[in-house]
Amino acid sequence: MTLRARLLWGMVLLLASAAMLSARDKKEKPKSSPSVDSGVFGVYVRGQRVVNETFSVQQEDGVSIIKSHLQEVGTSGEGQKSEMRLTSSGELLRYEWTNGSGSLSVMPNNEFLLEKITTGPSAKPAEQPFLMPNTSVILDNNFFIHREVLTWRYLGADCHPDPGGMKCSQSDEYGVLVPQDRISIRVRMELVGREKVTIRGVERELLRLNLKGDEFSWALWVDDKDNYKLIRVSIPDANTEVVRD
Predict the structure, then answer these.
(1) What is the rounded CA–CA span in Å between residue 231 and residue 243?
(2) CATH number of the domain encompassing residue 209
(3) 13 pLDDT band (50/70/90 cuts)?
(4) Which of 68, 49, 93 is nearest to 242 (CA)?
(5) Contact predicate 179/170, CB 8 Å
(6) Most CB atoms closer than 10 Å: which of 7, 98, 103, 153?
(7) Which domain holds residue 56?
(8) What is the C-alpha separation between 231 and 217, in angstroms, rounded?
(9) Alpha helix (H) ranges present in the chain?
(10) Is the distance from CB of 159 to CB of 169 less than 8 angstroms?
(11) Among 116, 83, 113, which residue's Cα sits nearest to residue 102?
(12) Cα 1 to Cα 96: distance, rounded to the nearest angstrom
């Protein structure tokens, strides 16, 4: 991974360091993991809230830990849970997903990735190798925190602060693994620029990026005044909008 690409994870580590200093100043519990980001995304389809995604991004001994829990509105089941662990240079250590009845995991296997899928408590895991390096992006179905992590990676590798706003040298293409679909795809991220958008009746000026693949086109807005946290996602083809609470 290039030096510029490492800036992404430098950003995460910087936020974690700030959290640790704050915790030290306030004499908080020393064993708590520094939080880089946490919150809830509301997923709306045709204006109706249908799913809540509760997420967190933490640092622990130089490892980024990204957790997410998806729960359909009005249900009490276990929902879907995922956990991704990345090194400070963006290498995948392990990814796990479960919905209570089935599970899967992705981990490095020599120079590539190996996915293990379990369909039930007594089922023998099936294995599927992918000829992809451990720096490949994980974008699993329905987990929008994964899109935030990809945004940080793009901004850290291809962009730099400028008096007029963030400037990016180019769009960038990534090899992506979608574990639940057991497929690999290519996606492209590009910076559009600052836009005024209305969220819950309040106008905000945010940084817009476009995330595109062969069969989809999404718009993402991040707050460049709050550590580039993902605030809103628009998926026009699916009549879907995602908004941070």
Answers:
(1) 6
(2) 2.40.360
(3) very low
(4) 49
(5) no
(6) 153
(7) 3-75+137-244
(8) 17
(9) 3-25, 145-158
(10) yes
(11) 116
(12) 24
